[in-house]
């Protein structure tokens, strides 16, 4: 049976209100002057020596439309300049889930540092949902409140519908969605980058994916594959919305220009006629190579692009 915390509810609400409001700000939600409601199956423990309040057993803190739920919630406080107290760190342990009207974050353990306004989620099945966008990570997911920036580390992914980008590390910049709420606007990818859609897969060392335009810019050992056809180069622009890709060679070194290389496998006779543009082709006969659904266009080399620096953390 869930019991309201009575004896220390007032103190806990006063201490936790700023923290809960900031966590809600992760998705643009702010409880304003609304009170904090805290529920827990096993009550609350006040540790005066360590200056902490611990809510145990299916603990849940709610403020406005934002809720933080976990097996255990711990709020660490300190004295402030006016002689009062303030929470500076909130720790959620076990089946952690933060929800608001504009998104959700989940994992096994979450730590919110109020001074830095950064929330770090670790554990298994780490993910953040904002609108139709989903960001996942194997090792950790950070959210930097002031910058509206999520950093996913370890086999990280960001997806929208059937389009996905994967890398060792992803930084996702959030913004206001077309229908309100939050959505991912841009993803910067670092290390073992893979961009995938229903039509093709592209590999690179680094990349930038603009979700609004559906365009991924890739750099470093780029390889684009569609069926059995493949192009290799050092720089590519992949339009995931229209299924058109441009790939370029690396800059010339020591007067020796580099080249784009490609492998194109023709259809075998009787394998079928390619489907009209915009229509998925029929499956090839057993043993026949797959048909190319849309062109991969080698382009002339433009002026050297300006590379974005990895966001500082």
TrEMBL record:
GO molecular function: glycolipid transfer activity
Protein name as annotated: Lipopolysaccharide export system protein LptA
Signal sequence, start to end: 1-21
Limits of the Organic solvent tolerance-like N-terminal domain: 38-137, 139-243
Region feature Disordered, mapped onto this chain: 250-313
Organism lineage: Bacteria, Pseudomonadati, Pseudomonadota, Alphaproteobacteria, Rhodospirillales
UniProt organism field: Stella humosa
Keywords recorded for this protein, A-Z: Signal
GO cellular component: cell outer membrane; outer membrane-bounded periplasmic space
Pfam families: LptD_N
Record field: compositional bias (Low complexity): 270-305
Gene Ontology biological-process entries: lipopolysaccharide transport
